[in-house]
Amino acid sequence: MNGNKEKLVVIGNGMAGISTVEQILKLSSRFDITVIGTEPYPNYNRIMLSYVLEGSKTLDDIVLNDLHWYEEYGITLHMGTTVSKIDSDTREVVTTDGSRVPYDKVIIATGSNSFILPVPGHDKQGVVGFRDIADCNTMLDAAKNYKKAAVIGGGLLGLEAAKGLVQLGMEVTVVHLMQDLMERQLDSQASAMLKAELERQGIQFKMGAQTSELLGGERVEGIRFADETVLDVDFVVMAVGIKPNIAVARESGMEVNRGIIVDDYMQTSLENVYSVGECTEHRGVCYGLVAPLFEQGMILAKHICGVDTAPYEGSVVSTKLKISGVDVFSTGEFIDGPEHTVISHKDEWKRTYKKILLRDNVMVGAVLFGDITDSAELQKLIKQQTEMTDDLYASLMGTGCGGHKKTTSVETMPEDEIVCGCNGVTKGTIVDVITNQGLTTVDEIKACTGATRSCGGCKPVVEQILQYVLGDNFTTGAKQGICGCTSLSRDEIVAEIRQKGLQTTKEVMNVLGWTQPEGCSKCRPAINYYLGMIAPDTHEDEKESRFVNERMNANIQKDGTYTVVPRMYGGVTTPEDLKRIADVSVKYDVKAVKVTGGQRLDLIGVKKEDLPKVWAELDMPSGYAYAKSLRTVKTCVGSQFCRFGTQDSMAMGALIERKFERLDLPAKFKYAVNGCPRNCAEACTKDIGIVGNDGGWEIFIGGNGGIKARLADSLCKVKTDEELIELCGAIMQHYRETANYLERTSEWVERVGLESIRAVVVDDIQERKALMERIEFALGHVEEPWQKAIRNEQGENKLFHGIEVTARP
Fold this sequence. Notes:
Its cofactor is [4Fe-4S] cluster; siroheme; FAD; [2Fe-2S] cluster. Pfam families: Fer2_BFD (PF04324), NIR_SIR (PF01077), NIR_SIR_ferr (PF03460), Pyr_redox_2 (PF07992), Rubredoxin_C (PF18267). This is Nitrite reductase (NADH) large subunit. Residues 7-280 form the FAD/NAD(P)-binding domain. Keywords: 2Fe-2S, 4Fe-4S, FAD, Flavoprotein, Heme, Iron, Iron-sulfur, Metal-binding, Nitrate assimilation, Oxidoreductase. The protein is of the alpha/beta class. Helices cover 34% and strands 20% of the residues. The protein contains 29 helices and 36 strands. The strands form ten sheets. The protein has a five-stranded parallel β-sheet with strand order 3-2-1-7-19, covered by helices on one side. Helix 1 (15-27) links the parallel strand 1 and strand 2 (31-36). The longest helix has 18 residues, at 721-738. It is globular and about 80 Å long.
């Protein structure tokens, strides 16, 4: 350990603890971090266990931070180790094997355990909970040998387990004590619709059933209920709830109730010991969902790093059901009482249901079934305690964003009349951008003004205004498709994907009526990108829809060999990495090693069949030189070495590159970070250029040094590193969501307008944070492509030893 740093020990290697660590790493380097986890795995996404169970993902697919990540950040990781207590007298964390780890600060993130019903027979073979990878593996093994399963518990976790076991070929009955499924998240109406849909998918139900005994010898053979009826089964999953894991806190003498009691900065009753996640009790509440633990972690990270932060005041929780073919969402209050005003709509033909609850005309809760398009908007409105208005009602209940019907005469509409009630955009504003900025599509108007960005209900009126202003030019200007295969614009395609829940490129082409059933080289990659941008957590990337360089994770040369470009964060490397590059280059007969303008090394002339071996022996991340992604972050030496440097540009460049690497973007993307205004890293020709000064940083956007050269525009100045990172993330996500596929930022800035971008990412603090949250969510679902290819031996053989791919002349 580094003696100059504070010793931070994190007890728990799950999502809550490591998410907090990630936030701390972004804010400060003051800690020497040790992580102790009971499971024998690195940090993985527990939310994705249902996908592992149904077979669509493996453990490797859901690992969030592999072992290399811990090494990269100098984190000491103890896997398969359990902490017994915290010795506050000696300031040491004590493990069950007697080891002692000294600390200055401790974060407890021990999560929760499955609650196993204490009925006779609960300890028989074939009875498991559903909480971790070990449970998943047990269930996968059981599905190979047994046919009849029961899942006790009709909540979120139980239904996910049931669907996974059905997918594995088992006959599954969900046993639930209550008459409604997910009664803690859904009302009776939504619950009944959910049950009917799951029955169509093959799940059976026994409702209102109280389990009294598990029957059988050593292995479970049946369930006896309180009414003396029996269900024959040979496998039982207990999913009746969770209980916070407070064993360490109790043994350490901390104040506990149901969970570990904390204040608004996650401080426990023990000095310098904090708690976060499912093991924590804040203001009498223990949260069992992922969003609150991330909110807690962000506040704790700022507090522990000495950064000003608002206190944690609790979370407005929401729930989405992660079962294919079933869309369910709830947030806030969901059971209506005498004090509520209820807004609801049910469509039995489309199997959709929407209910919004008001108290004193303020939105306090919502339930959606079948169509959850409005889920993000509703959660935001309820969290902000928004008052219901006619315009908001119209947008949420499908009658148009300003309450206008499609037949409204836009010609007679006053200039100051609001068209987009969600974002407060008037007719006059829309007419002005069409007339003065030459905008010709709904997509362009959305990017510039925000109209249609939220609920989309005002889109018909915006189109009418376009037609009114453009006249005869409307058909050619506003209705031009993304390629010859379709007349649909980028904006329309994205909207249809969201509304209809389309999941694959072929599905998009089929449902939206492509003239060419297989599409073309222009639309296939674009659709694949839009699908991944919209649903980064569920979209399965379609390699066949990508360009050859992206399929191969390397740049093809005219002789059919490839160029491999390893990542060098901020243009900085180590002697060990340089030696490794040299050794690999000699071993695999690399034709040339070239220093690039982006401060990296190209290994030119690698044979296709050697690519996986080269990646494995380099043991470095991909530099993404082939991808529509973050390519490079060019830096000067900055304040670390330069006598003119005012900011640490190398450290900031490496931080930005590590944070935003691997994320798909509409086009390739480059940064430059300068330590002073002398601009040695050439910020003026990068997508985002950053220049340090005595007071902080200045951000430039939209630069390009290629065929269409363009000097970047000054966007804003910030004082802190945290503001800089947040703005960079917001800019990138705004670009991801509004740019056309293959549109560089230089073109995007000119089309959308610098002032429009500034209004969204600089002036609108709330929208900036929302953009940052969305890019953080997307970043949570990216994966290192070289390591993935190395692991996927079958894919490796097929891709790198199969059909030859020739270079384009």
